[in-house]
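Table S2 (continued). Query chain:
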Amino acid sequence: MVKTFCAMCEAYNQSPTEIFQQITPLDKLKKQIEKYRLEGNLQPKKHIIFKRKEVKMQELKKEGKIKVSELTPHPKNNYYFDDMEGDSWDSLLQSISTSGITNAITITDKKVIISGHQRVRACKVLGIEEISYKMIHYENEENEIKDLIESNLRQRVLGNTNPVKLGKCFTFLNEYYGIQNGGDRKSDAKILHLKNKENPNTQSELADSYGISHQTMNNYMRLANTIPELEDLIDTGIVTKDTALAMIRNLSDEEQLELISSLDTTKRITKKQMEKYIEEIKSLKENPPKPQDYESTKRQLQNYQSDYADLKRQFDNNMKELQNLKKQIETMNDNSPYTQYEKKLKDSSLLFCSKVATFIEQVGGYAWLIDKINEIPELEREGYIKSIHVIKSWADTMEYNINNKTKEIE
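Corresponding output:
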């Protein structure tokens, strides 16, 4: 059993103390050693996951060769990675055509590709019908995606040329390891990898493991949440990663969309050009341009405000007079028809004056529409002019009747 235990430590790249500390009590350790012995010369497992002192193994179930036609791409591969293109793709085809596939691909027990999408793609182009594989059993899709991302990033040496998709990769890894704002992961699970004995506890550690800075990783993650219109420009190369970051830092989603709609997106937009656009937008926000008729309109508004104040004073005086009249009427004991008639005349006259003052107060502020009469839509303009004519017709009729009555008195 001791020899088997030592072999187990070597296979998992762990010291006896590390294995012993993770597997308790002793009878579980014995069962694990016995299981390893019975499995014989199986290659080392890819992951050993210890949680709450219970050991779970993602086992290397099988390896060998498999027909390319039997394999299925992982449904999330295109979400996180683009296909290789250009010189890198040509180099891969040349390498495989001369040297073959040197590293086995990784697949699930359902023949879904985890690592090796581009190698399988190259085999289809070159007419290679079989490929070497390692089959891993995964407990859940989350572990599949984690391996898909990590294996592809490391094999391509951050060769994910799409910065938005690279940001999606780092966003997933941050969530998978429970890293938030650079802090420790909250999960109590401890995942031990053969090559990296310790998983990242902070964003800085995760970024360091891929040879980039914490800030660079956060920039990629920002790009992962960009608006679709900007993502399309990044994908087509019209806008670079740095240019897109300048937009995201300085403009809201609405401002980004408005700016994109105003640009010639058939030509490459440099960071310097984008910074100039952003400065122009900031300048317009801080110092909006004034229309040509700003000063005249401002003076008109001041005049309207003065007219309104005068009318309001008149109205207030009339209201006070009306209240005084009401009080006088209440104290009057004479209920003769003449008094009642006179009261009615006074009240009606005051009410008329009050309503006219209210009318002028409510509509006087719209006199500026006369200066803009040709800009008003046709239907509304006809209604506006008709309303003016109705007021004028009413005023003319009232004036005509007053003049006639005045002549009768004379």
